[in-house]
Amino acid sequence: MKDLIDLIQKSNTIAIVTHTSADGDALGSSFGLAFALDAIGKKVSVFLGEPVPKMLDFLPGQHFISEYAGEKFDLCICLDTSDMKRLGDRDVIYSNAIKKITVDHHTTNNMQADGLWINETASATGEMVYKLIKALNTNISREIAINLYTAIVTDTGGFRYSNTTPESHIITADLLSKNIPSADIIKKVFDTVSYSKMLLMKKTLDNLALYYNGKVAVSYLLYEDIKLVDAQTDDFEGLVNVGRNLEGVEVSLFLREEQPGKFKGSLRANEYVDVAQIASVFAGGGHKRAAGFSIEGHLEESIRKVLDEIEKVL
């Protein structure tokens, strides 16, 4: 922590980057940290790969979002990202910065940095950012609290996932003391479904199949299905849980065809399978019970390849 604080204090211009298809943890951590750095007099810019998803458009701090103009930053802080490839075209911002910090809670992190903090026991990167802000002796404002609460609550599935710890509740208790609209946040991120997502959920259910005596659930969305409903990035959030929530299922695999023949895969496990190990076979990664990867080829061929790896660890 001392090394991270030292790198921050010696920097004037600071860029914050996170992974593509940024979720609640990635965005909440980024905006929350941006507020804290701004409060201690740093010039902060947040660089995103896509627009903020509709389900997270309530997050304060979006005025920190910038368009990259080729500038070289004193420091680039990379949050919630385990691999340079997941930064997309913003990898150049990280690479060109004079100094680099990575803060992440994924077990498969291979980032290079001057300050590298990986804590796989943290439920969310938002927990780590909370500690970093505290170490900076910066006040946790209401805006910071909204962002970090969203980060933690989304990555723990509303405190339902096995990554939830006593510390998760202790930290969020402090955030709740800042008079944040917690009920509204929960409703927005978990209970509000767009019409296009409802159609995608129906299609996901229609495509669901079970393997290995019901221990593995597989579903998918094809490129044409997605284009037909004009789906947005956040419409895919949680669709992998359609299979995971089915009684008797240990592993759920969900594939979505982003371009013809190119799939983004999501893996979830309930009790004992390490899906990060499976994802790593396809150059992906994540957590033991939640991971992602990319794969190319025909749908049936891609499903078969992943099923073969799942079978090895069942």
Offer a few descriptive terms.
single chain; about 325 residues; alpha/beta; 6-stranded mixed beta sheet; 5-stranded parallel beta sheet; 12 helices; about 40% helix; about 20% strand; globular
What does this structure look like?
With 314 residues, the chain is of the alpha/beta class. Helices cover 38% and strands 19% of the residues. The chain contains 12 helices and 11 strands. The protein has helices spanning 2-9, 24-39, 91-96, 125-135, 142-155, 166-176, 182-191, 195-206, 223-228, 241-244, 275-281, 299-313, and strands spanning 13-18, 43-47, 75-79, 99-104, 115-118, 209-211, 216-221, 251-259, 262-269, 285-286, 290-296. The strands form 2 sheets. A 6-stranded mixed sheet has the order 6-7-8-9-11-10, sandwiched between helices. A 5-stranded parallel sheet has the order 2-1-3-4-5. Helix 2 (24-39) runs parallel beside helix 4 (125-135), helix 4 packs antiparallel against helix 5 and helix 5 (142-155) packs antiparallel against helix 6 (166-176). The longest helix has 16 residues, at 24-39. It is globular, with a radius of gyration of 19 Å. It starts with a helix and ends with a helix. The model has no long low-confidence stretch (mean pLDDT 95).
Note the gap between the termini: 39 Å
Structural class: alpha/beta
Number of strands: 11
What is the H/E string?
HEHEEHEEHHHHHEEHHEEHEEH
Q: β content, as a range?
A: 15-25%
Q: What's the average pLDDT?
A: 95
Gyration radius, rounded = 19 Å
Please bin the fraction of helical residues. Answer: 25-40%
Approximate shape: globular
- Residue stretches low in confidence (pLDDT < 50, at least 5 long) are none
- If strands are numbered along the chain, what order do they take across the biggest sheet? 6-7-8-9-11-10
Total helical elements: 12
Largest sheet: 6 strands, mixed
